[in-house]
Amino acid sequence: MTYRLPSAELRPVSSYPDRAALLRDRADSLRVLIRADLSRPRALLFLLCAVAMSCFPVLAPGLFVDAIAGDDSTATELAVAFTLTATALGVFGVIPALTLHRMRGRSRHRWSAIQRWVVLDRHPEARALPAGNIPESLALPYDLRQGNVREGTPTKGVEVPEEYGSGQFPHIRWLTAVVLCVTSVMLVIVVIAVEGIKDPPRIGLAVALGVFALCMGSVVNKVGTRSGWCSDERRLRRLEESRMERSAALLAGHASDEISVPAKRFPSEIVWFALPLIVVGVGYITNRPDDATGYAVAASVSGIVLALGVVVISSSRFREQRQFRVVATSIAAHCPGEVFPVRHGLQPENLVPNRGLESWDFGPPRVSGLVLGEDSLLLCRTDGASHEVPFSDLLGAVVLRVPRHDIELLQCDGQALQIRSTEPQSIIDALREAGVRVRRAHN
């Protein structure tokens, strides 16, 4: 089936008479684009191309290599073998590769269009449009909060597409591709380890399985990337509402003024590296085998994994602290006052244009300096860019309960900035001394 895809270049928001027309156009375009992106005939064509490309390394040794290796091969037999090999290369190699290349280009075009259409309703110009007659089936949480529609529950999947699955419920196509990719890799290892790669047929089989694994890996990457971006978009849409709640709680003063952040935090990531050793220990305690040789070997390997995890986490923290010191030294050379190195850009990358403090809040993550003056807060980057926030425009700061004690600076106009530091208590104390209201978040 052929779909007429909407263009990735959207029409100007000002051309819509009201928000209802924009939401209808957005819903219709996303329905067509996602249906085309997850088309079953297109997935079947991709699978056939992947199988065809995997067949050529298996056929090549039998068509051409055997003819060359044979001592009694005549010129006619070599010519026939060469012709068959060239034909097989075209049918099972060139044509599928060109088809996959064209499908990849169209896939990029569709995904670019999907992203632009999804975030269209978040643009300030789109929110400034008159509401119009918004159907309840197209109403978004923002429209419900603004009273553009009567009270109701937003329809599932209208705000952000859910067809690509989520972390809890991955798409079946992603799961299938993961199983096929892992199975192919394991078979490659088995072929190389058991059969060896001395004979051309064995080499061809290993290459064929490797090609198929790469094709399935591209499916895993495609669906995973789309699912991850949709999750980030949902997080961005919930961010505004959660910050409004934290601003209200900050003004109400529901939380305690006394905030103590531990100077050092236990690295929770080490649990993942210790998990194999924990599993081996539980298995040994549960079974109590007479011969514990296998458990000893497994425990040794798990101990090596744990040691490597400790090294990786320690070196990561050391590099982070060194980067913070370098940034603080560089910024202190041209910014008076005490410099607190902080990491910002912790929110997912936002396709909607940002302004003011928001331009520092969204990805990619980077390190800058925070300088507290007499009547303002100054953010400085090593490239010379800076942003000043007067204390009179600052509503306060909230300490977030995340794996690391992040600090969220809230402005009176609704903008905010989440920062992360290796010494959050020092920043909290400095903000209090400057007269900034600091609270601990409830959520």
From the structure above, extract its key features.
443 residues; alpha+beta; PH-domain like; 2 domains; four-stranded antiparallel sheet; four-stranded mixed sheet; 10 helices; 56% helix; globular
What does this 3D model show about the protein?
This protein is an alpha+beta fold and 443 residues long. The chain has two domains: 240 residues, no CATH class; 103 residues, Pleckstrin-homology domain (PH domain)/Phosphotyrosine-binding domain (PTB) (PH-domain like). 56% of the residues lie in helices and 9% in strands. It has ten helices and eight strands. The strands form two sheets. The protein has a four-stranded antiparallel sheet. It has a four-stranded mixed sheet with strand order 7-6-5-8, with helices on both faces. β5 and β6 form a beta hairpin. The longest helix has 53 residues. The model has no long low-confidence stretch (mean pLDDT 83).
Helix-strand category: alpha+beta
Total of DSSP H or I helical runs spanning 4+ residues = 10
Mean pLDDT: 83
**Could you give a short account of the major beta sheet?**
4 strands, antiparallel
- What proportion of the residues form beta strands (DSSP E)? 5-15%
Shape: globular
The termini sit apart by 48 Å
Total domain count = 2
Secondary structure: helix percent:
55-70%
Strand order of the largest sheet: 1-2-3-4
The secondary-structure element order is HHHHHHHHHEEEEEEEHE
Multimerization status = single chain
Q: Regions with pLDDT < 50 over 5+ consecutive residues?
A: none
Q: Could you give the count of β-strands? A: 8
Question: Any idea what the radius of gyration is?
Answer: 29 Å
